[in-house]
Amino acid sequence: MSRVPRLNSWKEIAVYLGRDVRTVLRWEKERGLPVRCIPGGRRRRVFAYPAEIETWLAAGQILPPQSTSLPQRERPAG
Fold first, then answer.
1. In whole angstroms, what is the distance from residue 72 CA to residue 13 CA?
2. Is 52:34 a contact under the CB 8 Å cutoff?
3. Which of 14, 28, 32, 52 has the fewest CB atoms within 10 Å distance of its CB?
4. Would you say the pTM of this structure is higher than 0.90?
5. 41 dihedral zone (left: phi>0; alpha: psi -120 to 50; beta)
6. Which SS3 state, helix, strand or coil, does residue 37 take?
C-alpha cells in the first residue's frame, strides 16, 4: 500500500484497503474503522488517515467476530 497523506472519500478508503465500498462502510459501523466525518452538507463526507488505518489493521480489527450461530442439529441415525 502506498503512503498517501489523507484518503478523502469512501471510495479512496476502499481502494486503499483493496475492498468494496460497502465492506468499508460496514467495517466503519461494526468494527470501528477509523474514519472521520466532515461536518455540514447533506451527504456524509468522510476522510481517513492511512497511518490510523494501518494501526487499526495491526490491532486485528478486521478479524471476523466469533460466530453467534446456533449449533447444527444432529441428524437421527437411520
1. 38
2. yes
3. 32
4. no
5. left
6. strand
pLDDT tens digits for the chain (78 residues)? 556 689 999 999 999 999 999 999 999 999 999 999 988 877 789 999 999 999 999 998 665 544 444 445 555 565
Site of grid cell 500500500: 1
> What local confidence, expressed as pLDDT, does residue 42 receive?
78
**Residues 8, 76: Cα–Cα separation, whole Å:** 56
Query: Which residues, 6 or more positions from 8, have their beta carbon under 8 angstroms from its beta carbon?
Result: 47
What is the distance between the alpha carbons of residues 21 and 10, in angstroms, rounded to a whole number?
Answer: 6
Cell of 16: 486503499
**C-beta separation of 36 from 46 below 8 A:** yes
